[in-house]
Write a structure and sequence with these properties.
The complex is a heterodimer of chains A (669) and B (178).
Chain A (H helix, E strand, L loop, with lengths): L1 H28 L2 H30 L6 H6 L9 H5 L3 H21 L9 H21 L29 H11 L1 H12 L8 H29 L10 H26 L3 H24 L14 H21 L16 H33 L7 H21 L10 H24 L5 H32 L3 H11 L1 H26 L1 E7 L4 E4 L2 E13 L2 E12 L2 E6 L2 E5 L4 E5 L1 E4 L3 E10 L5 E9 L2 H18 L30
Antiparallel strand pairs in A: 1-10, 2-3, 3-4, 4-5, 4-6, 6-7, 8-9, 9-10
Chain B lengths: L1 H20 L7 H29 L5 H25 L4 H19 L4 E2 L6 E2 L13 H15 L9 H7 L10
Helix pairs in contact in B: 2-3, 4-5
The chains are: A alpha+beta (669), B mainly alpha (178).
């Protein structure tokens, strides 16, 4: 099975290389046979990599420890359902997964490419196959998951305990898929530019794949935060860890792109800016893969040593230089023929939104590379921690949320102050009302007040838009409000899908503000029968049970929680100690409500039966996890294909007797 | 397992080489691609108009701004349609129909019924400065209608259908025959 997998990797490498060279050469020489042949080779990489992937999965299921990768990331005691996680627990498997996903996405992207891109599709395919060739070459020559050991060990080393979590089934695959998906919009842009199509041919394809990449990264980031919250045992969800930042930055770049690309679609503006944004997003995605797979910096995500840093750095350099070189090559032909009509317009709001997003990305990049730069220039590694990011990015995030509230209420082209005042009146009143209520109950923290007020403003703005839209649709169609609302959303999917995503962002903001400004933390050691009071919770420690399970010892502690003097519920946080790793992974006990979480995690079980426990009250964090499905729903609605408008030839006027009816003059269609 | 891998390699090789064994006539990818890009732009413009109407419907845009923006979008859409038409492969049937239509519209204009734009055939209601749809200047329109008048009254000038008539060997069309 290992031989089959290895052979399939080499077959895929040959196909991808041929696909890259054949597509470009075939197009340049006008050989349609070569182009078709190269495209087939590209599609066949999916088949070869499917077989390779299934081979590795089978090797894990069979616990074939002759294969070095299987021996390093599984053992006999590992539950079978963690096979999928073990698959990408190390560099070799992760790279195979990335190549597999890229081959599928590339095939779908080329197969479903819009008609406008057909002429330059060979170049697009060529770019995609170059990226795939890189990953397959790294797998084949430097990180082959099918390499065999000179001997067969009796048992494997086992899967990293931190990875044995439900979130791991989705968080790493979503992030890796999101990062590599950024190459698809870039390929469409590069393909069009190389092919001399300097108009908007690439626009629709780049937009759709940009949104897909963005949504995958968003899901990956949220799931990663949830994983950190429940398993890392420190009670937080975001550490500004370099690898976390590396995934956040391309997401920020893509967020800017998917907003800005709407301006190009609607108004034919920002073409050059959008190309720069997609180049930047791709560069940041490559940087993310360099950080993640290259192992350049220590991180909670560094699950294994890596010697691949230099090759990823090289590819990063090529991946940044080449797209910008092509951009400057076509620079003179790329200028949009329209300018901003007014700064009081939706396109102007999108422009400012872009600048703010890039500012956050730059601050995050600076904080991430600062340890490397300080080591390089002053010989001392200085790490920038959370206060740096909070102080720099916090105000910019608030400004972004403000724009998220105002932008959708502005029309395209130009707004009048009277219309803006009318649209913003209710949201502004809601924001002020929230501030007044919060100050009345004793909340005076300015950033928290601003965060809650802006959240109220955005939510009210969206609800107001929905209410007005549903009202007018109900009136026009003679329907009830519910049916009219469904018609409204379904008839304007990109717009209202986007609004739903905005609501999800508000939910995330609520969680961030709640936990950043109002969380309570106590670290205590409790003997059985002792209790501690944290705000209105009394937490009583009952005792710990110990159970040996194959590769680990599980400590399960029991706590009784009383709220306002009455018994509320039992909580059972756990610690799993893995002797082979000399590592314990925690399982926090979380009682979650929309108002707040009570979070218990044990840090140490002592010989006298007492336990070290961290107790946190995290307000509003529930909203952050609910935001994930809402964001996915909004994205699906926004991406759901609109029914195609079929061009119909107008009836011949020669057969219509008499003069034509009056059709000129402005007015609603 | 190596046999399976070998069979897979063979299958891939056959599929990759197959296009060289059969020769399909190449299509005109460039024109198709350009037309598709034009239609995609037109789709965007229709979406923009739909959004504008929605914004107006829910009260985000006042009436005068709505009318102004709608008119701008319509002009842009008409201009785009013209570009698409110009880049399209010529269709003799459509061209003939268009020329007959223009000639008829031009004749009607002389009779005082209404004028039409020579650029796009849009009906003109008065002597504005330009066609509200394609932006063609009014003077051009006037020349075309004057030309048609001279054709009708036998004063000379180029008959818009003369070329096609010469090719087809037909006599001038008479409206009453239709």
């Amino acid at each position: 099975m290992a031989d089959l997998g290895a052979m399939c990797v080499w077959i895929a490498l040959a196909l991808a290389s041929y696909g890259a060279v054949g597509s470009v050469l075939g197009k340049m020489r006008g050989s349609s046979e070569l182009v078709v042949s190269a495209q087939r080779a590209s599609h066949l990489t999916v088949l070869a990599l499917t077989v390779a992937t299934l081979s590795l999965v089978t090797l894990f299921i069979n616990r074939d420890f002759e294969v070095a990768y299987v021996a390093a990331h599984s053992d006999i005691a590992m539950e079978d359902y963690f096979t999928w996680v073990a698959f990408y627990a190390g560099n070799e498997g992760s790279l195979l997964y990335i190549a597999f996903v890229l081959s599928i996405m590339a095939a779908v992207a080329v197969w479903r490419a819009p008609a406008a891109t057909q002429e330059t599709l060979p170049y697009t395919n060529g770019v995609l196959m170059v990226v795939l060739t890189f990953f397959l070459a790294v797998i084949g020559f430097m990180a082959n998951p099918f390499d065999k050991l000179p001997f067969i060990p009796l048992d494997g080393e086992g899967i990293n305990p931190l990875l044995t979590h439900f979130g791991m089934f989705f968080h790493p695959p979503a992030l890796m898929a999101g990062l590599i998906a950024a190459s698809i919009p870039l390929a469409f842009v590069l393909g069009s530019l190389v092919g001399g199509k300097t108009s908007d041919q690439w626009l629709d394809a780049a937009r759709v794949w940009g949104i897909i990449s963005w949504a995958l990264l968003a899901c990956g980031l949220l799931l990663g935060s949830w994983w950190a919250y429940t398993i890392l045992g420190w009670g937080g969800y975001w550490f500004w860890d370099p690898v976390e930042n590396a995934a956040l930055m391309p997401w920020l770049g893509l967020t800017a792109f998917i907003h800005s690309v709407m301006v190009q679609k609607r108004r034919g503006m920002f073409r050059m800016w959008n190309i720069v944004l997609i180049n930047v997003a791709f560069g940041l995605a490559l940087y993310g893969m360099f950080m993640n797979r290259g192992g350049s910096v220590p991180s909670v995500h560094s699950f294994g040593e890596s010697t691949l840093g230099w090759i990823f750095l090289l590819f990063l350099a090529v991946g940044v230089i080449v797209p910008f070189a092509v951009f400057f090559w076509r620079y003179n032909k790329l200028k949009s023929d329209r300018d901003l009509d007014s700064m009081l317009s939706r396109e102007a709001a999108f422009l400012i939104n872009n600048l703010l997003l890039l500012a956050i990305a730059f601050v995050t990049l600076w904080g991430t590379v600062y340890p490397l730069l300080s080591q390089l220039f002053i010989g001392e590694e200085i790490t920038l921690a959370r206060p740096f990011y909070d102080q720099m990015n916090g105000p910019i995030f608030l400004a972004l949320i403000f724009l998220m509230g105002v932008g959708p209420l502005l029309p395209w082209r130009q707004a009048t102050w009277a219309a803006v005042r009318r649209s913003l009146l209710v949201p502004s009143i809601a924001a002020v009302a929230v501030i007044v209520v919060l100050m009345t109950v004793g909340i005076w923290k300015p950033y928290a007040l601003a965060g809650f007020a802006l959240a109220a403003m955005v939510t009210t703005g969206v609800l107001q838009d929905w209410a007005r839209g549903a009202g007018s649709t109900a009136k026009a169609r003679g329907e009830n409000y519910a049916a009219a609302f469904v018609h409204l959303v379904w008839g304007n999917r990109p717009r209202y899908g986007g609004y739903i995503v905005h609501l999800a962002v508000v939910m995330v903001a609520l969680g961030v503000v709640g936990t950043s400004f109002f969380n309570i933390q106590r670290d205590v050691a409790l003997a059985p029968g002792e209790s501690v009071t944290v705000r209105d919770y009394e937490v009583r420690y009952l005792g710990t049970t110990e159970e040996f399970k194959g590769n680990r010892t599980e400590y399960l502690s029991r706590f009784e929680v009383h709220k306002n003097g009455e018994f509320a519920y039992l909580m059972e946080p756990g610690r799993h100690f893995y002797p082979s790793f000399n590592m314990a992974s925690t399982r926090a006990a979380i009682h979650s409500t929309p108002v707040e979480d009570l979070y218990l995690v044990t840090s140490e079980n002592m010989a006298d039966g007492s336990v070290g426990v961290r107790i946190l009250v995290n307000p509003l964090i529930w909203w952050m996890w609910v935001a994930g499905p809402v964001m996915v729903a909004g994205t699906l609605i926004a991406l759901w294909p609109q029914p195609a408008r079929i061009p119909v030839r107008a009836p011949s006027l020669l057969t219509v007797p008499g003069p034509r009816p009056q059709t000129t003059g402005p007015g609603p269609a | 397992m190596l046999v399976v891998a070998g069979m897979l390699a063979l299958l891939c090789a056959i599929a990759v080489l197959h296009p060289f064994l059969r020769r399909d006539p190449p299509g005109d990818a460039e024109t198709d691609s350009d037309n598709a890009a034009g239609y995609a732009e037109l789709e965007s413009m229709l979406d923009s108009i739909q959004t504008l109407q929605l914004e107006h419907q829910i009260g985000n845009i006042p009436e005068d701004t709505f009318r102004e923006h709608l008119q701008t979008y319509r002009l842009e859409a008409a201009s785009l349609l013209r570009r698409i038409d110009e880049s399209r492969v010529p269709d003799p049937e459509q061209d003939l129909e268009r020329q007959v239509l223009l000639a008829r519209l031009a004749s009607n204009g002389v009779n005082g019924t209404w004028l039409v734009c020579a650029g796009c055939g849009e009906q003109l209601m008065g002597h504005g400065e330009a066609c509200p749809v394609c932006g063609q200047s009014q003077s051009t329109t006037a020349r075309r209608t004057e030309g048609a008048r001279r054709v009708e009254e036998g004063e000379g000038g180029e008959d818009p259908l003369a070329g096609l008539r010469r090719e087809a060997g037909t006599t001038p069309l008479d409206d009453s025959e239709e």
